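Researcher: Please predict.
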Amino acid sequence: MLSSGQFQLRHVASFIVALAFAEGAIAQAAPAFPTGEIKGSATIHTDASRKALVENADVVLPSTAGSAFSGKFKDAPKTASTRVPVVLFLHGSSGLGLKAIGEWQTWLATLGIASVAPDSFALPDRVTYKSPIDKDMYERIHALRLSEIQPTLAAIKAQPWADTMRLVLAGTSEGAVPVARYGGTDFAARILFAWSCDNNYFVSEPRNSFEPSKPVLNVISVVDPFFSKANAWLGNAESSGHCGAALKDNANASVVLVPDAPHTLLNMPATRAATRGFLAQHLSLR
């Protein structure tokens, strides 16, 4: 016959065994988060890479600028018959090699809009990564991308084909973070593709710097694999998956959620329709 002390110990031991079993089951059921990876080490532009950033930028000019052109900034026409609106576009972590960017720039030209996409990878040994990585490294990359706006902007303003009163700052994914954080007043409007403007694994804090009442368009997939709740390691259970909260007081802001779209959604029909309407309205396109 067991004493009361032996009875209590046996039940405590059973509870511990059951708890350990339950914790083991939970651990087995927990989703396996991917392992991040970092390559390269450079996160600050040199004088040489800052120059190459612009010279190697992909430029597409519409025929309305005098003659159509598609190539590198260093080879762009030095004369023009008229000035046209220009989109300064910041690519994502894949760089300018992403085919969708060139297709999008060509499409912009059909609307009478020029575009300049600077080459962040002009920096030798620039950091590349596979998410998720630590926030400190993400922030160093975001600072790098933010530093690319001013030299590109200065170069655009010096071009005979650029209408400096109708400049748009746009970016996708990694390139959309500096679009949200840019503190200048040089652009007539901003466009952010595939970025949610909120707190998550990708930033230490959003640091949005939108100008009051300046036009902003945000287009993102409802099931974006990185910045919606479809991502198990998003790091923010309260995230809306879009920039609505950051833009709630801006009457000239629009948020477009595209169902079942991939992360790169520049050329989706819904994206192009929203972008065309936004640009036509705020750039006074003919």
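Model: The beta strands are 37-39, 58-61, 69-72, 84-90, 114-117, 128-130, 162-172, 189-193, 216-221, 253-258.
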